[in-house]
Design a protein that fits this description.
Elements: H1 29-33, E1 49-55, E2 61-67, H2 69-73, E3 77-82, H3 83-89, E4 93-95, E5 101-103, E6 109-110, E7 116-122, H4 125-132, E8 136-141, E9 170-177, H5 179-188, E10 191-202, E11 211-217, E12 222-227, H6 232-243, E13 250-253, H7 269-281, E14 285-288, H8 291-297, E15 301-312, E16 318-328, E17 357-365, H9 382-400, H10 404-411, E18 420-421, E19 427-428, H11 433-444, H12 446-458, E20 462-471, E21 483-484, E22 487-488, E23 491-497, E24 503-507, H13 516-528, E25 535-538, H14 556-583, E26 590-593, E27 596-599, E28 602-608, H15 609-617, E29 630-636, E30 645-654, E31 661-671, H16 678-697, E32 728-732, H17 750-766, H18 781-788
Parallel strand pairs: 1-14, 12-13, 16-17, 24-25, 31-32
Antiparallel strand pairs: 1-7, 2-6, 2-8, 3-7, 4-5, 9-17, 10-15, 11-12, 11-14, 15-16, 18-19, 20-30, 21-22, 23-24, 23-29, 26-27, 27-28, 30-31
Helix pairs in contact: 9-17, 13-14, 14-15, 16-17
The structure holds pterin cytosine dinucleotide and CU(I)-S-MO(IV)(=O)OH cluster.
The site of pterin cytosine dinucleotide has 35 residues, from helix 13, helix 14 and helix 16.
Length: about 800
């Protein structure tokens, strides 16, 4: 079980302040709540210019001509850059994270509404914007590919005419599991249910949009690039590869980030254009997108059309799951995910159940929509997988007339089956599902809720109870299986204990609001006994941190957290050698208690970490081979991913007259193994649940038939506020990861991954009296109302 929560107590003396894991307040908050954060747009460099991007008004069109004369004549404009200019620098196209290329500025055609066409650099943001209107672009409009179901039709317009020999919009087919084995199980099963479901296009929409400031210094050839990025080191290496600037001459600084949620993983044309702008003008150039640019052009998420099938016995034993997916990747395949997995970790769609067989096939296609994919607290498409399986289990429950909880309990992987090899190639590290489900039922008062629902149904009222039990896979990943553009997915950490016993830990990952400055200090504190407030956490600056792949897929704790724990243990081991020298005894005769090595059997004779640090840097005669510091570093290659899980129960009431869904209660019981800071974990869960309710009920990036984006502002792309969400009821169980040094699993995306099916299952449950067994997200009042009239509408 979790250690007792230790509240930060401002009146506590230094001696009894909390050390290590526990509910301590966030170290970064004093600056955030005082408005003293340092976000990209707060940074102002001397002589800095401002960039703005001209974007395509249409989804598909040939560029006939671009005339920049008038824009260049604007008195405050310093440069206007077009695709043709970039072609001269060999920068018109940049590699994506998925072995494709993406236009930095369009040269031949525009391929989605909002695509980057030209870049203006001017003295201020307003002049840059004004000058965009002075650029004259002539387009020849082409038929767009908007409906993903028609993208592979013979004769469909070809989006990627730039790729040699391309005659269709097919990107990839990818499979996992055993098709023949799965078909055989299906053929012999008593019961088979099938359902097509759409996980619509949504957007992470962080509070801070994306931006960059490039400062190229021509004399020493050094580029300093401030960027809203979740992965500063990976970005630096990619910039070195693409722009040809030597890596040691590039410094990427990711300052405070106002939310990433996956939106800040990719390299956007704007970042590259800021660099080109700075090289061309010889001045620092800032580019920051506005809200519509963010929603229309940076990484979207989902856009999966999934057909799910489940085979089961009449008494509710689930035997097999299979699925076919049509994946809309937009105009460029810019999805961020490990190379070997074009559908991310979607093949965890076997969920929390012990199956005999499973198979999936995913087909990726190009359409005339913005590129990106994966982003939005998705754990690399685990979101889609969990939605599929948790929706399908409810479809099966309804077919069998079984309670959805009972059906799940009957099929859970049993605790003694872990580590569990599923049918699509994963090895679940640890799990104990039933207690987690039972705790959620207990908090929710499940039996009472079902009774209440029966009474309400009898009166004609619409109340729904939705269940979701998810298994996540986070912490990518073992280098032998996982890389991004050839970079293995490991992370480095460095710990230095200063002579007075204060410490600094340097990370390759980067917080966007997850509280790393607190929790990573807590890991060092737990291992070394130095109070967290005496430990400085440095991240987001490639000049001052070790190499590593960055923050996404909730990998910081599983990978970088492990690196920090192991680095701290190295420091501890070294401290033992130095303490032995100081105490004139043998290292084997020393015993560790938090913060101190002492002589076995003589607890009075010991040295604290601070004393040892001073010894190391002081005049103590150091043992052979031990150098005079208390520093260490580690690059951690995780042996496996971690598999957090959780049980969610959502209760909704639906207004019969308007179709409005009211989320009355939401119970979330999560298990992320060892809990470093329960308060931060709860914050992660609260945020993710709001995301889930938002996606289930209101968030949607739609397109009209011409490819006009219908979700380009917060008037159209609705995100939930405190008004739309209930008071979250959380609980937890603790099943440590057996392979992680401190037993911690990731938590950052669990709630976003796990909650949408709970909400949709609740809505469908409420509408069961209408004979409904499925409804696609978002369950807007209009769509719910239509469903009640027997006219379900597609998203
Ligand atoms: N934690 C903990 N104990 C655990 C697991 C995690 O105390 N057993 C703490 C961690 O130390 C960290 C936080 O919880 O402070 C999240 O940790 P982790 O699950 O490792 O996730 P990451 O730090 O890698 O964050 C990434 C994840 C992702 S991929 C998205 S998307 C998302 C999410 O985090 N984006 C966020 N949560 C977000 N929260 C905020 N505020 N802003 C974002 O952009
Ligand atoms: Cu998929 S969104 Mo998070 O992994 O950065």
């Amino acid at each position: 079980e979790e250690r007792p929560a230790r509240e930060a107590n401002p009146s506590a003396t230094a001696a009894d302040r909390p050390i290590g894991f526990g509910r301590i307040q966030r170290k970064e908050d004093p600056r955030f709540v005082r408005g003293k954060g340092n976000y990209l747009d707060d940074i102002v460099l001397p002589g800095m210019l401002h960039g703005a991007i001209l974007r395509s008004p249409m989804a598909h069109g040939r560029i006939v001509s671009i005339d920049t004369t008038e824009a260049l004549a604007h008195p405050k404009v310093h440069a206007v850059i077009t695709g043709t200019d970039l072609e001269g620098l060999n920068l018109a196209w940049a590699p994506t994270l998925s072995a494709d290329v993406q236009a930095v500025l369009a040269t031949d055609k525009v391929r989605f509404q909002g695509q980057e066409v030209a870049f203006v650099v001017a003295e201020d943001r307003y002049s840059a914007r004004d000058a965009l209107e002075l650029i004259d672009v002539e387009y020849e409009q082409l038929d767009p590919v908007i409906d993903v179901r028609r993208a592979l039709d013979p004769g469909a317009p070809v989006v990627r005419t730039d790729l040699e020999g391309r005659t269709d919009n097919h990107i990839f087919d990818w499979e996992a599991g055993d098709a023949a084995e799965t078909d055989a199980v299906f053929a012999a099963a008593d019961v088979v249910v099938k359902q097509e479901m759409v996980y619509p296009r949504v957007h992470p929409a962080p509070m801070e949009t994306c931006g960059a400031i490039a400062d190229y210094e021509p004399i020493d050839g050094k580029l300093t690039l401030y960027e809203t990025t979740q992965a500063p080191h990976a970005h630096r290496t990619l910039f070195a590869m693409v722009a040809g600037i030597p890596e040691h001459k590039i410094r990427v600084i990711s300052p405070d980030i106002g939310g990433g949620f996956g939106n800040k993983v990719g390299i956007y044309p704007g970042y590259i254009l800021a660099v080109v702008g700075s090289i061309v003008t010889g001045k620092p150039v800032k580019w920051v997108e506005d809200r519509s640019e963010n929603l229309m052009s940076t990484s979207f998420a989902r856009d999966y059309i999934m057909t799910g099938e489940v085979a089961a016995t009449r008494d509710g034993k689930i035997l097999a799951v299979r699925t076919n997916v049509l994946a809309d990747h937009g105009a460029f395949n810019a999805t961020a995910q490990p190379t070997k997995y074009p559908a991310g970790f979607f093949h965890i769609f076997t969920g929390s159940y012990d199956l005999q067989a499973a198979h999936c096939k995913v087909t990726g296609v190009y359409t005339n929509k913005a590129p990106g994919g994966v982003a939005y607290a998705c754990s690399f498409r685990v979101t889609e997988a969990v939605y599929l399986v948790e929706r399908m289990v409810d479809v099966l429950a309804s077919e069998l007339g079984m309670d959805p909880v009972e059906l799940r309990l009957k099929n859970f992987i049993k605790p003694e089956q872990f580590p569990y090899a599923n049918k699509t190639g994963w090895e679940y590290d640890s799990g104990d599902y039933e207690p987690t489900m039972r705790l959620a039922m207990q908090i929710a008062g499940y039996e009472d809720l079902r009774r209440e629902q029966a009474e309400k149904r009898a009166r004609g009222e619409l109340m729904g109870i939705g269940i979701s039990f998810f298994t996540e896979t986070v912490g990518a990943g073992p280098r032998k299986h996982m890389d991004i553009v050839g970079l293995g997915m490991a992370d480095g950490a460095e710990v230095r204990v200063h002579p007075t016993g204060k410490a600094v830990v340097r990370l390759s990952v980067q917080s966007q609001g997850q509280g790393h400055e607190t929790t990573f200090a807590q890991i060092v504190a737990e291992e070394l006994g130095i109070p967290p407030e005496d430990i400085d956490v440095v991240h987001g600056d490639t000049d001052n941190t070790p190499f590593g792949l960055g923050t996404y897929g909730s990998r910081s704790t599983p990978v970088s957290g492990a690196a920090v724990a192991l680095t701290s243990r190295k420091v501890r081991d070294k401290a033992r050698l130095i303490a032995a020298a100081m105490l004139e005894t043998r290292p084997e005769d020393l015993e560790w208690e938090k913060g101190r090595w002492f002589v076995k059997g003589d607890p009075g004779a010991g040295k604290t970490i601070a004393e040892i640090a001073l010894g190391a840097h002081g005049t103590v005669a150091l043992p052979e081979g031990v150098d005079g510091n208390l520093d260490a570093e580690v690059t951690y290659d995780p042996p496996n991913l971690t598999f957090p899980f959780g049980a969610y129960i959502c209760v909704v009431d639906i207004d019969k007259g308007t179709g409005k869904v009211h989320v009355r209660r939401f119970v979330a019981v999560d298990d992320c193994g060892t809990r470093i800071n329960p308060m931060i974990i709860e914050g992660q869960i609260h945020g993710g649940l709001a995301d889930g309710v938002g996606m289930a009920l209101m968030e949607f990036i739609g397109f009209d038939e011409d490819g006009n984006c219908l979700g380009g502002s917060f008037m159209d792309y609705l995100i939930p506020t405190a008004m739309e969400v209930p008071d979250w009821e959380t609980g937890h169980t603790v099943t440590p990861s057996p392979h992680h040094p401190i037993g911690a699993k990731g938590i950052g995306e669990s709630a976003t991954v796990g909650s949408p099916p709970a909400v949709v299952n609740a809505v469908v449950d409420a509408l069961a009296p209408f004979g409904l067994t499925h409804m696609d997200m978002p369950c807007t009042p209009a769509r719910v109302w239509e469903a009640m009239q027997g006219r379900p509408t597609p998203p």
